[in-house]
Design brief:
Radius of gyration: 16 Å
Distance between the termini: 22 Å
CATH architecture: Up-down Bundle
Helix content: 55-70%
Shape: globular
CATH class: Mainly Alpha
Length: about 150
């Protein structure tokens, strides 16, 4: 129950971000920024979705996921579609009865984590990059909007 409410706030905050991104010129969304490891705003949005695909899709749900190609997905409409896929994935994750420990393998290393830790990771990862997106836009002369949960 609490996870669902928390994710509802994440989606609401994300929607404010995506609406704001619609006010940014398409070429600016694709502009690489040296201060952010040459990432673009478009890249970070897709990277956020790919994190959900990996941790909740592949690791937790053991689904073979198709990761987003940064060279092919450019429009905000296409990015929004990917976040709809993320929302379905999160709903499936939240509707699963999880054991206390979820095993995973990353770069050859084995580990275990908990559903709470996985869920916290993907959300904090998204918010980290959301802050970077807003900073990138400010560097390009835009005035970022308030995307906090409390706004």
């Amino acid at each position: 129950m609490l996870f669902r409410q928390q994710y509802h706030w994440v989606v609401s905050s994300r929607e404010v971000l995506l609406e704001y991104c619609e006010s940014i010129k398409a070429e600016d969304l694709l502009k690489q920024h040296p201060s952010f490891a040459n990432a673009s705003m478009q890249y970070l949005l897709l990277h956020m979705a790919n994190c959900y695909f990996f941790w909740l899709g592949e690791v937790a749900l053991k689904k073979k996921m198709e990761y987003l190609d940064y060279q092919k997905v450019h429009s905000l409409a296409a990015i929004r579609t990917q976040f709809e896929t993320v929302n379905h994935l999160v709903n499936k994750f939240l509707n699963t009865d999880w054991p206390e420990a979820i095993p995973y393998e990353i770069r050859g290393a084995l580990g275990t984590t908990t559903p709470l830790k996985l869920f916290t990771h993907v959300i904090t990862h998204e918010y980290h990059h959301k802050g970077q997106l807003l900073s990138m836009s400010r560097f390009m002369g835009y005035t970022p909007v308030d995307t906090d949960v409390l706004r």
